[in-house]
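Open question from group meeting: does this chain pack into something compact, or does most of it stay loose? Before anyone orders reagents, we agreed to write out a predicted structure and look at it together. Recording both the input and the output here so the notebook holds the full record.
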Amino acid sequence: MSEHCLIVQLALTKKLCLNALLALVFMLLLSSSSPAQFAFAPDNLVTRSLGGRDILSVQTTLESPSSPMAGIAKVSIVAPKPSPADRDLEVVIYIKDYGANPAESIAYRREVRLAEGASRTDLQITFVQPRSNTLWDVDLFEDGRSIENKSPNHANNLNINNYTPDKAYSTSLGLLAAGESEAEMKAAVRTIVSQIHPAVDLNLMSTTTGMPPVLSSVQAIDQASDDWRTYLSYDFIVLTPQGVAQVNQQPELAEALCTCVAAGGSLMVTSIADQADLEAVDQLFNRRDTTQIDSATMLESQLWWGTELDKIGFLRLEKDRLLLTSLKQHGLLQREFGFGAVCLSDRTPDRFPIPPEDVSYISPMHGTSDFTADSDGDWFWRNLIRAVGKPPVWTFCAIVTLFGALLGPGLLVLTGRLHRRSLMIFLVPAISLVASLGIVAYGVLHEGFDTHVRITSVQAIDGDTHLGFAWSRQNYFSGSPPREGLKFSPYTYARPVYAEISDRSYYNDLDPRKGRTCTVIIEPDQQRWSGWLRPRQQQQLLVGNRIAQVELPIELTRVGDSTLSIKNNTSATLPLVVVRGAGDDYYVTEQLAAGQTVKLDASHPTLAAAKVAKRMADYRPTAPPELGEGGSLLDFGTGSRRYSMTIGAANYQYADVLNRTFERWMSDKMQIPQFGFSVLTTESSAVEIPIDGKKADDLHLIVGVKTW
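Structure tokens returned:
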């Protein structure tokens, strides 16, 4: 018996040592993080047989860009022979942020059918990219049961250091038209990067220069994704005129690229030679059906403004080829589109013009820090729902006081009169139980079981193409979350935003299947976030959705050289409207009622900015007074992001898309482009809200450019 125990003890010791060695190796690998790169991680899974059916080989490739925006999981399910019948399967991808707090796991589920007679099926899943090291795993279900072969461990890790605030990586994508050379396109993209970011290191393998690396990728257009979210991680996308023509023949891909640019991306079209190339770009963004439109009206007014070293000029595509003339003169023209930018160049990439110091060819709204919680500023605290989530302190104090009075003198007097002091043995716990239940019941019932939603959004719309994009911070508080979860459109971007994100000094559980807080069920017509919304907690999402049908909130009419007529086209009062003319003439009006028209005289930029800043003081979201000045409620711990670092620090640099938009379009630092407008409203139907609920304190900023 003793020998047997000794053998068992030695085996356990050997196993523990082996596990410790594996953990040590894993930690060493994590500590030797290489520069950010496009990580292409493979996984091969062989299933077990269920009900006598053939085993399946599941091959998964996780494409994980360096930007914490969106990644792609490409899955291929292969059978050894054609399937004798339809097989309904379900792929589950587990994604976990490893080494950060909170390190929560999200499961992405998508159904797929291996059709009768087929031996292979392929699918793609777009997921929210973690900000740090990516842990992931794959499972396959059939008839609701996992058919994964449990013997091997398929947990994966991508140690790519996705986002580091003090480093600037350049990521770019070249879309390759049929017949174009992949090597030439990659060289072209890298050459453009060297002009835009002269400090980047073009040597991908270099680890000694200390410079950020350039991360370029080339993809054939006929294999490109029609999901706009997969393009968010790139600083810019490069196309040739041949590529633009090919994209125009694929409406879904064209819509994806336009949506990505509207969300904050940058598109560059190089080597433009003639008017036909310009018209192809115009068609890409206007999405006109040229077969059903009169050629006399096909070229609508399309406003472009050029990056012209020292001035901004307005050019229209249909007038005397002025756009082409100016393009050949300056080498590059730029137009804002939504939150993004479109750049046109008649130069080949090797002659791509170097931007001046004060000019950027990349959209100012784009960048990894623009859309993540890492540069959240204090929007989480400013976007709290005020009416709920607060403990009724004075009510609790009254209950506790009454409870103490009843248990003390009250029971003594009562039992003394009854001459039954022994009753206190039963009355004290009984009254304590009733009081405790009463406090809990009051805390639940006074907030009810309704769902509360608070939305703060920025919306950029294009007045000519009538397309736009909305980024919103959505805060939820639900007394009883619905079982079906949150329902989004299939291509809506959504990611959780936490009160703080801090790096841990130790590592979390390596199993991405553990700590799961949400399951995203991907269906043909929607994506459902199941299990994410928890009862009676303030939770927030960053949501990005395309505005397919844009309705301009205001109508502008020139009355005189320095007089403008503004009409409210909405059904709600607009608290603040700011319009800029062709020069430095600004027009500001407040509390514009629904359907009302006002005539305004031009104001000087300084006077207009002062008026806007004064009015915005009444509408700017602020943190609850209980948390003012980074008070003791949240000023604790060792995390890298604290409330006191945001609201308490006057010089904190807000870098998220909401703060940047408000600062540029609706503050005393206004930088509105010519013929630009910014409208503040408390109601909007352009933001996609995945759940019905009571709304209060909503705020929407609508910006755009429209000539008048």
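Observations to bring back to the group:
The radius of gyration is 30 Å.
Residues 662 and 701 are 7 Å apart (CA to CA).
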